[in-house]
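Sanity check

After download, print the first record. It should look like this:
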Amino acid sequence: MDIEELLPQEPEGGKAEEKKQSPLVSLEKDLDLYADSIKEVAVEIMVEGISANPIFIAHQYVVNIGEVILDRKELNTEWTIQASTFEEFVEKGIIQQDKKALFLKSYKKPEDFMCVFVIVPEGANFIYYPYKNKG
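Expected structure tokens:
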């Protein structure tokens, strides 16, 4: 899923100018800023054998899954990022037992993409955000 698919579409009233900026615009900015740190943690999770499928949680609230690795208050950014794993998501019931194979089939290469579980007031969803290749 691309980040654009999560952005709100034109409101039913038809006047696009009236909608406020999506929180996902600031998320994209923060993910670009955090990318190196997130990738470092993802590699660590895989190398240490904790999980082959790291998942990062992006939120602006308090969530009880994973561990905080980038705190928005400390970094003066919009989003806090927590590190977790596919296994923890299954254990907590976020990924249901009967959806495990489907999730793993769609899981993108963690060396190229960060798997981010984005939590916003309207709900939550998984996105895959590419690491920017540095020249």
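If your output differs, re-run the checksum step. Summary of this record's structure: The longest strand covers residues 113-120.
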